Amino acid sequence: MGNTMLAHLTAVDFEIVEMVQVFHPGWYKRHTDGLMSLEQLREAALIHWGVVREIQVKLRAVKG
């Protein structure tokens, strides 16, 4: 769990609403070509650099 003083200083905290991994096109093609399952692609992301190109996070402000 990530906690920072920012939430205490601004009296605002955030709740994660949605999180999406955007895979590198070359790696994702392995999945769409049927060479890897989505589970295998996620496992590859744990051991190889560059499998996940970005992580998109949607937040909701929780005012305290």
Topology of this structure?
Blueprint: H1 6-10, E1 12-23, H2 25-32, H3 38-47, E2 52-63
Antiparallel strand pairs: 1-2
Fill in the keyword field for this structure.
2 strands, two-stranded antiparallel sheet, alpha+beta, 38% strand, 64 residues, elongated, single chain, 3 helices
Brief summary of the model shown:
This protein has 64 residues and is an alpha+beta fold. 36% of the residues lie in helices and 38% in strands. The protein has one domain.
In round numbers, the mean pLDDT is: 89
Assign the structural class, choosing from mainly alpha, mainly beta, alpha/beta, alpha+beta, or little secondary structure.
Answer: alpha+beta
Radius of gyration based on Cα positions:
16 Å
Provide the low-confidence segments as ranges: none
- Overall 3D geometry? elongated
Terminal Cα separation, in Å?
A: 18 Å
Helix content: 25-40%
Following the backbone from N to C, one meets helices and strands in this order, namely HEHHE
The total of helices stands at: 3
How would a textbook summarize the main sheet?
2 strands, antiparallel
Strand content: 35-45%
What is the count of distinct domains?
A: 1
Q: Which strand order does the major sheet show?
A: 1-2
**Number of E-state strands:** 2
Question: What this model shows, in words?
Answer:
By secondary structure, this protein is α+β, with helices and mostly antiparallel strands. It has one domain (6-63). It contains 3 helices and 2 strands; from the N terminus they run H-E-H-H-E. It has helices at residues 6-10, 25-32, 38-47, and strands at residues 12-23, 52-63. A two-stranded antiparallel sheet has the order 1-2. The longest helix is centred in the middle third of the chain and has 10 residues, at 38-47. The protein starts with 5 loop residues before the first helix and ends with a strand. The mean pLDDT is 89.
